[in-house]
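Entry 14. Ran structure prediction on the chain below.
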Amino acid sequence: MKDILQFWPAYVSLHEDEILSSFVIRNAFAHFLEIKQFCYSQIPNFFLIDQDVDFIQDATVLQIIADKANLSLSKIKATTLRGDPESRYKKYIKLLANKSKGRGFLFCPRCLKEDGANPFFRKSWREKKQEFCEYHLIEMKYQCKFCNAPVLPLRARLQKTIMPSSLSILGCYQCSKLIC
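Output, structure tokens:
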């Protein structure tokens, strides 16, 4: 049995179809830490600069996240874009990562609103080339509705004026307003 002290104190459940970056961000904000500060202190060798976190394949890093979140390694691997060997969208994902330097994460504003106090970004939104939400049949967005900055969740900042802190994941890194 694992020692309870090695788990993250604030429990954040992993949602079905959640992408790794979203899970890490929600954990950081649940601990009232900025993303870089959280990663630096909690996940050794997990660098956020010059890499797409959702493509992480370092087994040591993924195991640390799994252990700290009290989840299996297979569940954490399933949150990565390369974690699903059956993904038929791998070529598209690589193309998107290379071509869309100025474009943010695709998201459905209604899905995020329906998440209530625990919004999260979906793996399927990054995997699939979709222009419309398959549930709400509305156009997917990729930028802030106020300042048109690309939605880049890893640049989100802990919003001390937004409660609960879990909503900080929806804060625009440029204007700090909620993206939806």
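Residues 91-101 have pLDDT under 50 and may be disordered. Will compare against last week's run tomorrow.
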